[in-house]
Amino acid sequence: MDSNIYDLVIIGGGPAGLTAGLYACRARMKTLLIEKMMPGGQIMITDWVENYPGFPEGISGADLAERMTRQAEAFGLETAYEEVVAIRPQGDVKEIILADKSLFAKTLIIAAGAFAKKLQIPGEDEFYGRGVSFCATCDAPFFRGKTVVAIGGGDTAVQESLYLTKFVDRVFLVHRRDQLRATRILQERALSNPKITMVWNSVPEAILGGEKGLAAVRVRNVKTDEIQDLAADGCFIWIGITPNADFIQDTLARDSQGFILVNARMETSVPGVFACGDIRNTPLRQVATAVGDAAIAAVAAEHYLNGF
Amino acid sequence: MAEGVLEIGDADFEKEVLQSDIPVLIDFWAPWCGPCRAMTPIIEDLGKKFTGKAKIVKFNVDDNPITPGRFGVKAIPTLMFFQKGALVEQVTGMMAKPKIEELLNSMIG
After folding, report:
1. Out of A201, A267, A269, B24, which could bridge B82 as a Cys pair, Cβ 3.0 to 4.6 Å?
2. What value of ipTM does the predicted structure carry?
């Protein structure tokens, strides 16, 4: 069984996982990356990345993902398309449990990322794919010349609302506070865009529609309790993310939202297990921070392996 | 187009999907959709694997708006599974390959 033990198994193939793989392969660690869908992670659905250095004109999320994948593979990164069901991280050999077998590794890097949070209001599930969307790059062209509602106020909500304006006639951007949280340059672009109408101090209550799909989004003003139905053909939801951490259960220490707690070397509460990127407790979730985390995690794993 | 995968549009939807003798997986996609591009290798692989047992079909929603409109498809990738002209399952968003295979196998019986 010894020969089947990896030096490192990386769970997740977004920017963090691919970067960890790149560093680990260059360190000649016997490495396997496990990805449940396809490499790229959340940037696969990001229309445009213009805050990752080295691409002065910006780059599409899908292109960036493809380049990162190619770069990691060029150094010999091996990828398995499997879903991790659970982990047993204690001890010198860590067990990674898949649907039909287990894998074993001396070190583990968890880079499983996060996914879009749902509103959990009536109509959201019913109209998903029939007007409700979490992905502007996938679905914006379905709403050419139409009106849509976008929910949120952070970078993703504002960036993607701006992208929507290339297709739609009007975006109602619904935010629960009276100012946006997004980075200034995005705020300036949104507030000066004639196609974007801000709906301040408001939260969505329900998504309404019928046979033909979504028809309106019901919002409530949190200051006045006034209810209004915004007539629209689509509703895009960008209210934050939640970690892909079901398989971790209580094996590692996590914060109240489920993100994995790590120190500056990306070490989790269990020796030999590291976490990086969106799945860890971090003040900023960007490609730039994910790849930095991952480089630290990979080198820390190498040091752990070599007994430093 | 890859071997084993059929590319169709509004004009041949009726014949290739609804009137098919074997189960059909139809992948609604468009060139501008990153996750759709990421699904491509999976779809092509399924095309080879299910040759003769199920029909694996790609449908470009950009060039063919009528069929997506008919089924209320407003998000891609959307996968639809048809058997004997009836819609059996509709899934929006990326779907893992083992789950697609499981569904196809259950339809083949």
Report:
1. B24
2. 0.72
